[in-house]
Design brief:
Blueprint (H helix, E strand, L loop, with lengths): L1 H21 L6 H14 L22 H14 L11 E2 L6 E2 L2 H13 L10 E4 L4 E5 L8 E6 L3 E7 L3 E6 L2 E6 L3 E3 H11 L1 E6 L3 E5 L8 E6 L3 E8 L2 E6 L2 E6 L3 E6 L4 E2 H23 L1 E2 L7 H15 L4 H16 L7 H5 L12 H8 L4 H11 L2 E2 L7 E3 L6 E3 L2 E3 L1
Antiparallel strand pairs: 1-2, 3-6, 3-9, 4-5, 5-17, 6-7, 7-8, 10-13, 10-16, 11-12, 13-14, 14-15, 18-19, 20-22, 21-22
């Protein structure tokens, strides 16, 4: 009987304990999740345990209040799908172990950032929209002073723009151009890509240009510091360049690669260039006019005949004019369209008036030809020429040609 009582007491004890444990909330995950999202929605950062504040915690993610609001509304409205919803905080039954789903939160935050539009800055590049060139004005006015010229395939940067004019800076020139003569934005960028040049500048004392992109490749040339070559492309450690018409390679670490387009010319530069061109053209014309030609064999009598003609035609002219008359006669002698000797050229029918009037013969017979005319005749025979290839001359009456003294030569 005592044994049976003990058994009943034991069973009652076990039943009481079982009932007590059955009333405890073993499954706390849903409650923890609810508390966690409420914390995010309120934008509060609460300290759950000392471990949360530890410097060893590597999973803390900082989110702005706005992002937290979006996170709260989206997660709550999504119904917390299995395996995808980020859980801000979870606890075990004892409430002492704490972790964060940082990876899920990180991915979700990235998705929020994608939603933000990326605003690109508007391009300030402009390119000339002309067949030849457009003038750059000091002010936004057609009658304003011209300060420079922007040529076809040249460009610059926008400084200011209105409905009709744009102020640009191109090279050393700053001024205004009408909008109708400019490309803007993407159109300008596309043109720049087509006409621009990629240039590689050497930044070392001696840069080797190699046949292949390898330190073991043969050397096809050398570049001194500051020298530039056209760059074709940049490929990692090497830059492909055009060296004297041949494709070569230079080490990328020893060059500075820049993309550039041609820019405007100022009026000062234009005037200097035009003056230089005029001077060069004048020098070339002078070189053609004054030259040493082959000497022609002439007898003493031919020298006297030529000197007499020079005196009759240009005795009162400066010495240069006297040589010029003799040079025309000698050009005819050298030309295949006239006789090949001085006498026949001078006495050809209808060529030189003094040859048929008797004045030349008088000078020859009386030995009264001026010394300067004798000297000019001798120089012309020796090949001195100051009229280029001119075969004719006459009194200057406005005819186009080379003017020396009172004569024009052509």
């Amino acid at each position: 009987m005592k044994t049976n009582c003990k058994k009943w007491k034991f069973l009652v004890y076990i039943a009481a304990i079982t009932t007590a444990f059955a009333s405890l909330p073993f499954n706390t995950q849903a409650a923890d999740l609810q508390v966690g999202f409420a914390s995010v929605a309120d934008g509060q950062q609460e300290t759950i345990s000392n471990k949360m504040n530890s410097t060893d915690n590597r999973n803390t993610l900082k989110v702005t209040a706005g992002a937290a609001d979006i996170l709260d509304s989206r997660v709550l409205s999504a119904g917390i799908p299995d395996g995808n919803a980020p859980r801000a905080i979870t606890t075990d039954v004892s409430g002492t172990t704490i972790s964060t789903k940082s990876e899920a939160l990180t991915e979700f935050t990235k998705s929020l950032m994608v939603l933000q539009p990326q605003i690109q800055p508007e391009s300030t590049l402009v390119m000339a929209k002309v067949n030849e060139y457009v003038n750059i004005r000091l002010e936004a006015d057609q009658d304003a002073e011209k300060v420079g010229v922007l040529y076809k395939d040249c460009g610059g940067d926008v400084l200011e723009k209105n409905d009709e004019w744009t102020k640009i800076k191109s090279g050393d020139v700053t001024g205004w151009i009408k909008n109708q003569y400019l490309y803007f934005g993407k159109e300008a960028e596309e043109i720049a890509r087509d006409v621009g040049v990629l240039t590689a500048y050497s930044n070392t004392e001696t840069l080797r240009v190699r046949k292949d992109p390898s330190l073991d490749a043969s050397i096809i040339g050398l570049l001194a510091e500051g020298q530039a070559v056209e760059a074709i492309s940049e490929d990692g450690d090497w830059v492909t360049v055009s060296y004297e018409g041949e494709t070569g390679y230079v080490a990328a670490e020893y060059v500075r690669v820049e993309f550039g387009i041609d820019t405007a010319e100022s009026m000062e530069v234009i005037r200097e260039r035009e003056e230089a061109e005029r001077a060069r053209a004048a020098a070339e014309a002078e070189a053609k006019r004054v030259q040493q030609k082959e000497a022609v064999f002439a007898t003493a009598s031919e020298l006297e005949i030529l000197a007499a003609l020079i005196q009759c035609e240009a005795g009162g002219e400066p010495y240069e004019g006297q040589v010029a008359v003799g040079a025309v006669v000698m050009n005819r002698v050298r030309s295949g369209g006239y006789p090949n000797n001085i006498t026949d050229v001078i006495y050809a029918s209808g060529q030189f008036v003094p040859a048929s009037g008797g004045r030349m013969e008088s000078l020859i017979l009386n030995k009264t030809t001026n010394a300067s005319c004798m000297q000019a005749a001798q120089e012309a025979i020796n090949g001195v020429c100051n009229v280029g290839n001119a075969l004719h001359f006459r009194r200057n009456n406005g005819r186009e040609g080379l003017v020396i003294g009172n004569h024009v030569f052509w």
